[in-house]
Amino acid sequence: MSVDASVTDGNTSVSLGLIVTELVINALKHAFPENRSGKIVVDYRSHGPNWTLSISDNGVGMPAPSEGVKPGLGTNIIEALAKSLDSEIKVASANPGTAISVVHAQLAVVPVARIV
Ligand SMILES: Nc1ncnc2c1ncn2[C@@H]1O[C@H](COP(=O)(O)OP(=O)(O)O)[C@@H](O)[C@H]1O
Ligand SMILES: [Mg+2]
User: Fold this and answer.
1) For residue 52, is it within any domain?
2) Percentage helix, strand, coil, to 5, in the chain?
3) 109 in a domain, yes or no?
4) Which of 62, 95, 102 to mutate to test the pocket of ligand 1 (most atoms within 8 A of CB)?
5) Confidence band of 109 (pLDDT split at 50, 70, 90)
6) 26 CA to middle of ligand 2, Å?
């Protein structure tokens, strides 16, 4: 697990914690069938208002779309939490395994000139 020294407000930390829990449980539950051994890495980095939380494992990987992945309750919870944090979920293959990132990239506010 690697986490930088940034500070977030209470609501944000609670949501980040719930996302970590869901994704680590998913890795434990789905990535290592038949007592396979492996590694789960939790990483959090921030830069100013922007941050990325990622949970990756070196397990079997997400099922292919043709195998019909059924999004469960966990997926819905993660999506709702990510939305509440104004962030996006990115799922990537980690070769081997799965890497899921939750990315909050705050765009600079560009003042729009008003045309009168
Ligand atoms: N780390 C992972 N490695 C492999 N498959 C995964 C992983 N995380 C999720 N999945 C797949 O995605 C599906 C949906 O996950 P989720 O919505 O959390 O539902 P649940 O965990 O209740 O099955 C899982 O059933 C599993 O097939
Ligand atoms: Mg789950």
Assistant:
1) yes
2) 35, 25, 40
3) no
4) 62
5) low
6) 5
Q: Which of 23, 30, 40 to mutate to test the pocket of ligand 1 (most atoms within 8 A of CB)?
A: 30
User: The domain that contains 91 carries what CATH number?
Assistant: 3.30.565.10
**CA–CA separation, 115 vs 22, rounded Å?**
47
Q: Domain range for residue 6?
A: 2-104
Q: Is 88 domain-assigned?
A: yes
Omega cis (within 30) before 49: no
Tell me, in angstroms, the distance from the centre of ligand 2 to residue 75's CA: 7
User: How many domains, in total, are found in the chain?
Assistant: 1
Residue 43 scores a pLDDT above 80: yes
Nearest CA to ligand 1 atom 22: 72
16 falls within a domain: yes
pTM of model > 0.85:
yes
Q: Which of 5-9, 29-33, 62-66 has the lowest mean pLDDT?
A: 5-9
